[in-house]
Design goal:
This protein is mostly helical and about 200 residues long. The chain has one domain (about 5-199). Helices cover about 75% and strands about 5% of the residues. The protein has helices spanning about 5-20, 25-50, 60-90, 95-130, 155-160, 165-175, 185-195, and strands at about 130, 145-150. The longest helix has about 35 residues, at about 60-90. It is flat and about 60 Å long.
Amino acid sequence: MNSIDYVLLVIIFLSAYSGMKIGILRTTFSIGGIFLGWLFAGQFSPHLGEIISQSIRNDTIITVISYSLIILATMMVFNYSYKIVKPVLSIATLGFSNIIDKIGGIILGLLIGTLICSIIIVGITRFTYDFELPKNSVSNIVNKEIQFLKVNKDIENNIANSFLSTNTLKIVQKIPASTFGLIPNDFKTSIQLFLSNNK
């Protein structure tokens, strides 16, 4: 383990702690408010925009204000609903829901922290290798097909000496490159290069 591992562990710990403090119930209500607010904004912002346009002429500003107001209003409704639902659940379950809420929050926080760390590791790995991919390149590209420009050995060595980073990259490597477009081709290639150079 090295300094990278300690930084990643701090991120995961803080995410888990935040999850415990916020709770899975409030997080769910917040995400729900944002998601539904976004949907409502798409449906009703033109109508609200017509009202706002009576005092504002700039279409861009009208659109931004309409979207923002609808999303904000929806989030406020969900936040108010959360404040009603939580004590009701607590009373109905004799406080047991509070324990579940905190445990669920910790689990969700751990997942979010792990995801954040994975993104950081993959990003750092991409900066380790400066190269040009051939046109129409695909996953599992052969190393000799890559035109190298520069390899940052310091970053590569730090990642190689990081237990969490190395194992995370091994897991990410097994994810198909086309899965939801999660990993761009050049990032995938960087991971392949790192793992082939640090077996």
